[in-house]
Design goal:
This protein has 247 residues and is an all-alpha fold. It contains 10 helices and no strands.
């Protein structure tokens, strides 16, 4: 119960911190929808195409929150007085990571929801209740490993390096995962690499959800594996940063 209370306290603190900078939050949430308007709206002439494009951009929205709102934000805040105070509080690493991941899920869902609203307004999107539910489940599940990857970047690199590193990983995973270009157009080497990226498996699940097709179980195993690996890397980065700054 104590761990749960501490986690909820961290979640509340992070949410309040973010909500106190509305311009930054609005920009982060709106960017995927703006890119959808310029790059995706004209490509979805039929309902199946529009559904698939919308699904891709909801995944892209989740990625943006994970890498920039939290990865770069953590790197920026590591040297702040508040971060220093947090480190002396009696809370284990798991509680601190949960306090970062849960707000990431909340903001990721908000960013994806904005994409859905824009897609509905400008594209012939049409999904049944079951398809919406499945897509939502995929996005919530995907936000966890992506948030942990962002957190790992935040703890492993300096603030000056965090933004370019986050951009490289963000765009690499987006393009390599097939969010902007159909994997059917990939050359053989890129297709082989794409099959090993978490974004490809998240996208496959999202596309199958909106197409009302069965999920491939292997994609869920890939997401679980990335969650475990990213969690270990984020925890290791936290301990490493703590050892360097407080030894």
């Amino acid at each position: 119960m104590l761990a749960l209370a501490l986690s909820l306290a961290h979640v509340r603190m992070r949410l309040l911190t973010l909500l106190r900078t509305p311009a930054y939050v609005a920009g982060t949430l709106a960017m995927p929808s703006v890119i959808l308007v310029f790059l995706g709206v004209g490509l979805g002439d039929t309902t199946p195409e529009a559904n698939a494009i919308m699904a891709s951009f909801t995944v892209f929205a989740v990625m943006g929150v994970a890498f920039f709102q939290f990865g770069v934000g953590i790197a920026e805040g590591r040297s702040s007085p508040w971060s220093t105070f947090e480190r002396i509080l009696p809370a284990p690493v798991a509680v601190r990571l949960a306090g970062a991941v849960i707000p990431a899920v909340v903001f990721a869902v908000a960013a994806a929801g904005l994409v859905v609203l824009v897609a509905h307004a400008l594209m012939p999107v049409a999904l049944g209740a079951a398809a919406w539910l499945r897509l939502g489940l995929v996005l919530v599940a995907a936000s966890v490993p992506l948030a942990l990857m962002g957190i790992a970047i935040g703890y492993w690199v300096t603030f000056r390096a965090a933004l370019p590193v986050a951009n490289i990983v963000y765009l690499g995973l987006a393009f390599g995962g097939g969010l902007f270009l159909s994997p059917r157009l990939f050359p053989d080497l890129l297709e082989a690499v794409s099959q090993c990226l978490v974004t490809r498996h998240v996208a496959e699940l999202a596309w199958r959800a909106v197409a009302e097709a069965p999920w491939a179980p292997r994609s869920w195993f890939w997401i679980a594996g990335y969650t475990l690996a990213a969690g270990l890397l984020a925890g290791w980065g936290y301990r490493r940063d703590e050892g360097e700054r407080y030894r």
